[in-house]
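Ticket 4471: requesting a sanity check on a complex prediction with 1,3-dihydroxyacetonephosphate. Repro inputs:
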Amino acid sequence: MRQPIIAGNWKMNKIKQEARELAQSIVRGFIAGLPLPEVVLCPPFTALEAVGGVISGTEIELGAQNAFWESQGAYTGEISPNMLLTVGCKYVILGHSERRKYFSESDQVVNKKIKAVIHAGLCPILCVGERLGEREEGRTEAVVGEQVRGALDGLSQSELKTLVIAYEPIWAIGTGKTATPQQAGEVHSFIRGLISDLYDEELSEKLRIIYGGSVKAENAGDLFNQPQIDGGLVGGASLQAESFLKIINLYPMGD
Ligand code: 13P
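Returned structure tokens:
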């Protein structure tokens, strides 16, 4: 059985004080001890320590939104995996479509970052997903397949034990358009099959594949009911405690 995981990607939102308050509200509303999904908060770098302080001692985990592949040195503006570890991070989002788009991150760059993050002992959340035009041309599997292969190139099965893959169709991010549970389920099945081909069935069955793109309390239940969907990577709806908690709380109720 795969433990579901729900991560809130706060993107470039919330100054430190706002981040602390949001984390406090989430902690207050979080019902510990229930068979909840694993919950991860991914604030901006400047709020990691503050949010880490609020969630320390709870079951909620801390994640970053990016990391560089070198461990230290003359790389102005970058943050190393080890630096993230020292402020309490367990997860790192890598290859988000916004980083691919605005910072030209290629699969090769994502691959270097995944290796560095895994070797530092952090768990990568690898984001993949197609553009609308690519879906319309019937190229979704080709695009997602290339992203997965590129990102994992040279990594062995034992190195991928903590990997999480987030399928985030670009046309669904921040647009209010969600992939239907069936559309998402199909791509998740494709990714699981690819991991089975590249590695083996054991790894593919253990791999958590989560969905991202306009996840809200209103649509999350149907998405999470898909056997291939192991949770969500939530953007906008994670910026308010109430909507984020509603999404988390869909799990213990069974749907
Ligand atoms: P939205 O939930 O705002 O569409 O963002 C999704 C996302 O990009 C999460 O990483």
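Notes from triage: The chain has a mean pLDDT of 95. Leaving this open until the requester confirms.
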